[in-house]
Each structure stands twice: as C-alpha cells, then as structure tokens.
C-alpha cells in the first residue's frame, strides 16, 4: 500500500515540473523519501 502511495505522490510531483532541471530535483527528493521510508 505504501508503494502505491509513494508512486502516486511521485507522479503528481513529476507532472508539476516544467523543466528538466526541476524533474531532476523532484526525482532526487522522491528517492530521499523512499530511502527514509525504507529505514
């Protein structure tokens, strides 16, 4: 269930980006969230 939530949030965040640089930042933040939730 938590994976579905994380993926949904990532999709929402990524869809809000307008630039390639913004996408990179969002992917990095998404990775950090996944890393924290795995601990």
TrEMBL record:
One of its GO terms (biological process) is response to toxic substance. Keywords: Cell membrane, Lipoprotein, Membrane, Palmitate, Signal. Transmembrane segments: none annotated. The keyword Ribosomal protein does not apply. PROSITE patterns: PROKAR_LIPOPROTEIN. The keyword Transmembrane does not apply. GO terms for cellular component: membrane. Belongs to the EcnA/EcnB lipoprotein family. This is Entericidin B.
């Amino acid at each position: 269930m938590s994976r579905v939530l994380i993926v949904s949030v990532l999709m929402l965040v990524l869809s809000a980006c307008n630039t390639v640089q913004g996408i990179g930042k969002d992917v990095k933040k998404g990775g950090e969230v996944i890393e924290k939730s795995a601990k």
